[in-house]
Task: structure prediction
Amino acid sequence: MYSRFALALSVSLFTFSTSLAADNCKGMGLETAPASQFKNNGDGTVTDKKNGLTWMKCSFGMSWDGKVCAGDADRESWRKATSEVKSLNKQGFAGSKKWRLPTRNELEKIVEHKCFAPSISTEIFPRTATTGYWTETKDLHSDKHAWIVLFRHGSSYISSKKDEWFLRLVR
Result:
């Protein structure tokens, strides 16, 4: 009797947790960066209507094929990330050569706190990793560290510049 109950409970909890993972934007409270805040530009970028910044839809290394972010995102050290941005700007992307790493404040503004794992609108930013994304904001106390935003839950942390994290570029 106990083992049937335990099995039924396990299956129920698994089904419940799976449905939560599939529907990650049902948190309590007000939306902080709803999909309606962004305009899809049709070229792999979106513009934040609230502050005028234009973002790459896909994480750096992926490409927008008109429907999804295809390929694999690149994980880079902070130094390599800044080098990759310079290389991208030599050739340009979506008609611009002014791409850069966002500031900590800018990247935090696209966090959607109603969502979890990832804490971002996946309608606007598909296939966003639930791990860290670099910012250009350096640690005030050490030139060996910079800030990242962790999109599992939307919090910011200081990380060694030698660590490898994802990039989402802005202009």
Summary: Residues 25-160 form one domain. The chain has one domain: 25-160. DSSP finds three helices and eight strands in the chain.
